[in-house]
Amino acid sequence: MLSMPKGLTVVCGALFLSIPTLVIVACSGDDGSTFNEGTPDSSTDSPGSFNIDSSSSDGTGGDGTSSVSCMPNIPANYTKQWTPPTQPSQPGPCQTTDIDSYYDQCLATLGQAGGAAACQTWKASHDACGKCIEPANNSGPIQWYDSRLYYTTNLAGCIAIKQNKYGADDCGGAYGASVNCNRDACEACTAGFSTGASTFKDFQNCENIAKTVGLCKSLDTNVGSACGGGVATVQNAPDTKPCFIQTYEDGGKDSAKVFYGRLIGIFCGP
Questions:
Q1: Is residue 2 in a domain?
Q2: What is the pLDDT of residues 120-148, one digit of tens each?
Q3: Is the predicted pLDDT of residue 60 greater than 60, yes or no?
Q4: Which of 11, 188, 204, 219 would you label with 198, given CA atoms 20 to 30 Å apart?
């Protein structure tokens, strides 16, 4: 189970910030929640939405308020972005113990004193595994941005691997292009995280607006047709279901460590 300091605020979205005392854990729904012991919420999207970074589909925040601090900016010459993952080798460069220790040293320590150094030490002693998890082109299971200010999970790449379809017009490619457009359109929001000029809620609001206009809107629409029914279909399909946090009949969910271990294992595991 993910261990976090008491009183840590956990907000819905697949965004994880390295700002001290704040970690944003992937989850669904429109509300932010506080988990004193760090129990993760679901990383799946709300039905009908394929934008892993957004929790609301109406252009507002989960609390119904609008954001004006940062608005989407889609450059006129922007083209869709999709970098497919490398087809996994068998066996992969990471053992199960390597994946567990990566989680402990690089993900669970995010935002903590000494966390960055712990992760660098881990990567220095796990070169091949680390390069698979965090390849330079950001096509691996964990995608870092803005000099490791935050990371997201590469669910699009996972879908491509599980379906063995890596094209830009396949489900994984369409998913990735939509998410990337929304994220890229809202770079002004993420630039303000470190200074306090913007918040994660601002980022969510911006992305929800981005996917309703221009190219990002068309890419969001493409996901439904490329995935044969959209996110609900992919989340429940036997082949791609492992890419998402699982909820069980007793109401329990994957712990963060279990989910990340499975996701990383799909890309890089034994």
A1: no
A2: 999 999 999 999 999 999 999 999 988 88
A3: no
A4: 219
Whether 1 maps to a domain, the answer reads no
Structural domain includes residue 57: yes
Q: Amino acid letter at 205?
A: N
Tens-place pLDDT, residues 4-16: 333 222 222 345 5
Domain that holds residue 64: 9-268
The enclosing H or E element of 145 equals strand 142-145
Please give the helix or strand (H or E) that residue 119 lies within, else none. Answer: helix 115-125
The residue among 110, 100, 188 whose CA lies nearest residue 148 is 110
5-10 contacts at long range (C-beta below 8 A, 24 or more positions apart): 6/36, 7/34, 7/36, 8/34, 8/35, 8/36, 8/38, 9/34, 10/34, 10/35, 10/38, 10/40, 10/41
Higher pLDDT, 112 or 226: 226
Q: For residue 212, is pLDDT > 50?
A: yes
The answer as to whether 122 is a domain residue is: yes
